[in-house]
Design goal:
Layout (H helix, E strand, L loop, with lengths): L1 E5 L8 E10 L5 H9 L18 E4 L3 E7 L2 E11 L10 H16 L6 E7 L6 H15 L7 E6 L1 H6 L4 H6 L3 H9 L4 E3 L7 H18 L3 E5 L1
Parallel strand pairs: 2-5, 2-6, 6-7, 7-8
Antiparallel strand pairs: 1-9, 3-5, 4-5
Length: 226
């Protein structure tokens, strides 16, 4: 059962905790993206010809002091990220992965709530209808009818489209109909993650600032799982 409410993390005027979950295909860069969000190496991330992540894992960041200001006061931010197995998985059944993620969402975010689901997609790989269907379908089933309000796309390997001479706008203009339809569904909430040029900390701050914009647009509401 899903429900919606204002996040209680806003009750503490000096600290905020945001809860995120990562979804996507195998080798899309979920675990690596999670490590950037956390500013750590909590999640195993390596190239392999098969799915690397087999279980859900929750990572917690250190406190980011002075991340933002509200009412003239500096706010300390902490990020909690749930990394999930690739879907479909090279070794686990779809039902197994779905049940694993469902239980993890309830266990970790059942009371605190989920602020945002990030659908991780490689920017250098075209998104076709058949492959997009699986992770999007799982998000829909797990988050319910409000999934469109609590989902954003995180494009990994964005430095490769830059190297190919595309700007972000040009890339999206040339994107597949499947991707454009998905973006329209989620109110064009997307983030590009670059691995070149910027320091890891700068990448992290840029991505978190964008995520906070989405959370504010939702008026800090969360999805809870019972």
């Amino acid at each position: 059962m899903l429900s919606f409410r204002l996040s209680t993390v806003m009750m503490d005027s000096n600290k905020m905790v945001i809860n995120l979950a990562l979804f996507g295909l195998t080798q899309s860069g979920k675990s690596s993206a999670g490590n950037i969000l956390l500013g750590s190496t909590d999640f195993q991330s390596t190239f392999a010809p098969c799915s690397v992540t087999k279980n859900c894992h929750l990572g917690r960041s250190c406190h980011l002091r002075g991340f933002m200001r509200r009412g003239g006061q500096e706010i300390t931010l902490q990020v909690q990220v749930l990394d999930t197995p690739g879907y479909p998985h090279s070794k686990l059944s779809k039902n197994h992965v779905k049940q694993e993620v469902k239980e993890a969402l309830k266990h970790h975010f059942g009371q605190e709530g989920l602020h945002l689901a990030l659908l991780v997609q490689r920017a250098d790989m075209p998104l076709y209808e058949q492959e997009a269907f699986s992770p999007v379908q799982m998000i829909q089933e797990l988050l319910g009818h409000a999934w469109k309000n609590y989902t954003a796309i995180l494009f990994t390997h964005a430095e490769k489209i830059e190297a190919a001479g595309f700007s972000e706008d040009e890339y999206l203009h040339e994107a597949s109909d499947t991707l454009l339809t998905l973006l329209n569904s989620i109110q064009h909430r997307y983030i590009f993650q670059y691995k070149k040029g910027n320091s890891l900390n700068e990448q992290r701050i840029n991505i978190l600032e964008r995520i906070m914009e989405f959370i504010k647009e939702n008026h800090y509401q969360v999805l809870t799982f019972k």
